[in-house]
Amino acid sequence: MLCLCYWGTDFLLLLTNMAALRRSIACLNFFRSTAASVLNSRKPLRHRLVRLRDVTRTSLVSLSVGSGLSAVPFMQQVENLSHESLIRSASSMVTDSANTYLSQTTQALVDSITQYSKALHTLISLQRRYLASLEKLSTAEEDAIWQVIIAQRVEVGDRLDECNRFESNWINAVNLCEMAAEAAYNTGAEHASVTAKTNLQVAKIQVEEVRQISVDAERKLTETQAEEIQRMAEYAFIESGSDDVHEAYLRED
């Protein structure tokens, strides 16, 4: 068994030496063919060496020139990173954030006022329908309608609270946007300042338009409530008689 191991080791060593010998012969043949092609060329070897030197020099010059051109914008960028430019860039970013905050709060306020106006119109419609059928309703029907009216009044109050909450956020956004626009103008970021002021004008116009709608709805609700009081007084007069109503009026005085 020991002899077989030694024989196996010698055999592997022999194979390794043969592979190395084949690689050496292949390299020798390659050098011979290369030398022959150089000697048989039309141009002398000296010309080839000169040509190689010129090509190398051209490549080095191109590389140095290209590196220099690439370095010019980089140096300009480094020089532009002054305190003024950094502050101007920071103020522009603050203005962008303020514009986003203003846009979101404006949309929330507009939607909340719109929903509040819709709730007002629904309440107005319910009260007018109640007044129109006041003399035709039974006691149970009248109680059912009043439950719906009371629930709608609660809805109106909730919508109004939501409007007040979003309006507070919107006012903060307006103040922030105004300060950001002034800061951008003072740092030289005129474009950011103009954009912020334009967004402020648009936001104020949008809010004013929906506010006018809600004001009109509130006015109509007030008129409907006044009409309701008058109709209820007339209905009470018809039910109890004019004398009883007159005596009750005198007792209240």
UniProtKB/TrEMBL annotation:
InterPro entries: Smac/DIABLO-like_sf (IPR009062), Smac_DIABLO (IPR015142). It comes from the Eukaryota. PANTHER family: DIABLO HOMOLOG, MITOCHONDRIAL, DIRECT IAP-BINDING PROTEIN WITH LOW PI. Belongs to the Smac/DIABLO protein family. Its main location: mitochondrion. It is found in: Mitochondrion. The keyword Cytoplasm does not apply. Residues 1-20 form the signal peptide. It comes from Oncorhynchus kisutch. One of its GO terms (cellular component) is mitochondrion. One of its GO terms (biological process) is intrinsic apoptotic signaling pathway in response to oxidative stress. Pfam families: Smac_DIABLO. Keywords: Apoptosis, Mitochondrion, Signal, Transit peptide. This is Direct IAP-binding protein with low pI.
